[in-house]
């Protein structure tokens, strides 16, 4: 569950670093000179986002909501 904050700011805080990493690793050539482990980045970034905007409480799923994670 997330705190009641400005959704636009939260969306930018979540998406912008990932877009910058993709830009750096792709068109700017970072993958050849300074490769970055995408999975490690995403895990660290989502953890940081949830620490910043999370309530520490996982609310109940909305009716009909279902999550599936690839293993």
Write up this protein.
This protein is mostly helical. It is elongated, with a radius of gyration of 15 Å. The mean pLDDT is 90.
SSE arrangement, N to C? HHH
Shape label: elongated
Alpha-carbon Rg, integer? 15 Å
List segments where confidence is low: pLDDT < 50 over at least 5 consecutive residues.
Answer: none
Number of helices: 3
Largest sheet: none
What's the helical proportion of residues?
40-55%
Please state roughly what percent of the residues sit in beta strands, choosing from under 5%, 5-15%, 15-25%, 25-35%, 35-45% or over 45%. under 5%
Q: Tell me, rounded to a whole number, the average pLDDT.
A: 90
Number of strands: 0
How far is the first residue's CA from the last residue's CA?
23 Å
Briefly characterize the structure:
The chain has helices at 7-25, 30-33, 38-53.
